Amino acid sequence: MKILIKGAGDLATGIAARLHACGYKIVMTEIAVPLTVRRSVAFSRAVYEGEAQVEDVRAVLVRDLKGAEKVLEEGRIAASGGADILSTTIAGYTPYSRQLDEPDYRLIEELVETTTLPINAEGRFHRPEQVVQAFKTGAWTVTVGSAITRPHCITQEFIRAIHQFKNQEKTGK
User: Fold this and answer.
1) How far apart are CA 21 and CA 56, in angstroms?
2) Cβ(117)–Cβ(87) below 8 Å
3) Whole-angstrom Cα distance, residue 51 to residue 135?
4) Which pLDDT score is estimated for 89?
5) Residue 141 pLDDT
6) Which are the contacts of 151, defined by CB distance < 8 A and separation ≥ 6?
């Protein structure tokens, strides 16, 4: 099984190394200028150096899917390579995409209709029913990020609901 990990910083590297040790084939993507602070323990170094080794695992910089496949066959981790999955990661966060408060289910449907690649639905998934809806629209997998990894986002939702309730009490509506 191939696993795509977005980012190749120190935390992602630890996860990748563990999954690799369990026999999974790992492809990691990274931005052109990584923001990694602890580069000595991160595969993101491969962007600058062509390869990076952390403990006994070596990651190699690749530029395309063919390069990633070759590296995976050799039993190494492909860093910054192509992957065989599409993700809706930045949908709604760019000026040229639909600006929605909810996940972009229409985008998921459009991708399912126009490609044979599996679709990873990601972006603004905060509730279980949203995840179920993504699967109903054809997503192969769903990433729940901020709702789990950023507790302050969850807290903000509670605060927003409390303020709304108190405002309704004051106005009698």
Assistant:
1) 10
2) no
3) 37
4) 75
5) 86
6) none
